[in-house]
């Protein structure tokens, strides 16, 4: 600094010399004032608490306790002695001396009973001191005489605390993949790690779903205690043999099932090994009649030899309840996880631009990083981010000064871009719908072609969806640059648009399936609960004799594709790209421009959410889907870990960790609600097939899935029936909704009130601070007057 | 991870390094469990030049401490070692080391992390984060590439505007705490996993 000053002197000549001197004098005065102010400040009670070994937080709490319990006795030691005639060194010494002064508040204050004593020892952990000092204070507390009253309360608390500690120990050891997490964290920091944590959370969710679904449906099915082993072996419920009318639903179900099984056997018997292998991919043929799909389950009626009468395992009821329980479990876990996010985001008031600098400067360095290369990258990223944010701020200042004309131009551009985006979305959706319908035509045309071509045709809708999901987001990313938003908002809006694309494509698929399954068709006979039971006119369109299994197969195909495509892409694209970059980036400019693979966090998360949505949608039709999702999560963890550690560099603009986690959960929640929709509609309105599944035996003419539960309720005593009936009526629903709305409104209003109060308190604080400065200045003046 | 579990079990069985009283003490006075304390001791031992001769009273010098990977690449390593060294001369005994790891671990509450963070960031130790402190802090953060002078000024001004409530041109501990409790990234970045 001195050298530059001298250089400046030489440059600018004698005129500026006087200015420089003036500056120096002012600086000196400022320094002097600050030092003497520092001496006064050091004696303020708040500073003393900070200096004490208890630390600020603990000291603050202790002084509150002290104030509450002994407000009659003023502590005389609080009046400081004013030192006069301070010089630089003396002031510093005083600051240091105060540092070594022991606690302004005693750590043994307010310790009366043995529970208090124990609680105080627990709070020693929070002291800002070395272990040696903490031990000293702990011994001091234990030496204080206390009343040994209510020992049982203290013992209870202690036992509970020990128990919690033990369980924490055990759980911590069982934590899956914590070593892998540490590795990733050390190299990439916490933002990439949130993706892997999210994956692990989904893994456990799928595990619970698998346990629920398989435990209630597959396990009872495969237990071969006694016959029946297939529906055709089931005994007739009216085994007395009397009253067989033509409308007997059980007979009807038997006939339909015979027809369906005959049809399936025809198909599978004429297939060779190649077709059988293809069937595994598609879920057709021999797979259709396995426990994988809905079709094979049926109500089992056992006649146990030792038990009088019969034991029926109501598979239909358990199927419905398993699905319901699975959704409930998912809902519960989702809410629990998003509550964490909401809590932290409510704290973040005035988020975005206002607090970003503080947060980045003080929380920017990831202390977890342990790798030299990663540290260098982190430094680089931080610098870039800070520069970017400073540019943002300048941009904001520029935006405030935007002329009306510029604003108009920008808004019109935004409208155009939004229309284009909408156009793309509608176009993709139409493409999917078209692909679904074309499938039927193509099947007709190429009915007798080689099975592999047939398989490809079968996969066409799924492939369309997958391709669109890859290409269109890239287009969105390019488009959003025209809209000139703040970068963080750009990312959010692209994410939102991609999410809409993915969910909408799934909904369109569901819609076209619905069209196939529920609408009447010209070429088909409607029978046995299936609209496409048999073909008329001998067309080569295949009839669908069990529509639930058909839907399950479509979703199964999507899941297989969803597993294979990223897996293959990783090995075909990402590893070679790294090799190419390593070998050629110095020689060829093009390679250097393309750069290294960046870990695209939003896309990866969306993939996970998509898999989970497929899982929820397909639960009902294919109880094994949670297990498939589980396996996929497990395998993908290692694949992604490999590719991230070996092929990718850190993302240039890392996500803010907490916000990103709540964003992921929010997107997952939206998908959950959207997958609930078709399910509830189906259970409430559509009739099941009579040829397959646990609902094949109707009990009324227009049987729907939900009637299973209704029949169950009819078997309850009439008082219980009345109780359940109330749930269905408006008299229950409308007050329930009203009450829920009222509570929500109440909590919202409370939150608004708290925010307002926080704002007022902050303004008060600012005023108090100004008061403090004023008083300090006056005291200083008084000193200097006395001195001088 | 499974190997870690097995080795931890072995250590728990025949640990002769700590008496039961000491282990209980450490468990009470820090945020670690017994297994974690053993793990920390293992890491402490690995830093010493002569691991076999390490006892609880061994002091590690500053350069030996710098060998710990997370500390080595940390731009604030000198401040961390200074703040946690109980003897004030940048050397740490095992208890200091344990204390340091306890503050940085997952279980430590936010309040204690904020207090220690304030002490670490306070370069001139005047109990307030003034402009000079902020300047040094930002310099350390950016590493080899420095921000330009005008950028630096803009940044420091922005930070002070955001958080200084009493207009004393710096951050006191209360202001720092106020800001950091609302900063959700702070708690995830201010930790070292064992």
TrEMBL record, chain B:
<dbReference type="GO" id="GO:0000287">
    <property type="term" value="F:magnesium ion binding"/>
</dbReference>
<dbReference type="InterPro" id="IPR002048">
    <property type="entry name" value="EF_hand_dom"/>
</dbReference>
<feature type="domain" description="EF-hand">
    <location>
        <begin position="151"/>
        <end position="186"/>
    </location>
</feature>
<dbReference type="Pfam" id="PF13499">
    <property type="entry name" value="EF-hand_7"/>
</dbReference>
<feature type="domain" description="EF-hand">
    <location>
        <begin position="109"/>
        <end position="144"/>
    </location>
</feature>
<keyword id="KW-0460">Magnesium</keyword>
<protein>
    <recommendedName>
        <fullName>EF-hand domain-containing protein</fullName>
    </recommendedName>
</protein>
<dbReference type="InterPro" id="IPR011992">
    <property type="entry name" value="EF-hand-dom_pair"/>
</dbReference>
<keyword id="KW-0677">Repeat</keyword>
<keyword id="KW-0106">Calcium</keyword>
<dbReference type="InterPro" id="IPR051433">
    <property type="entry name" value="CIBP"/>
</dbReference>
<dbReference type="GO" id="GO:0005509">
    <property type="term" value="F:calcium ion binding"/>
</dbReference>
<dbReference type="InterPro" id="IPR018247">
    <property type="entry name" value="EF_Hand_1_Ca_BS"/>
</dbReference>
<keyword id="KW-0479">Metal-binding</keyword>
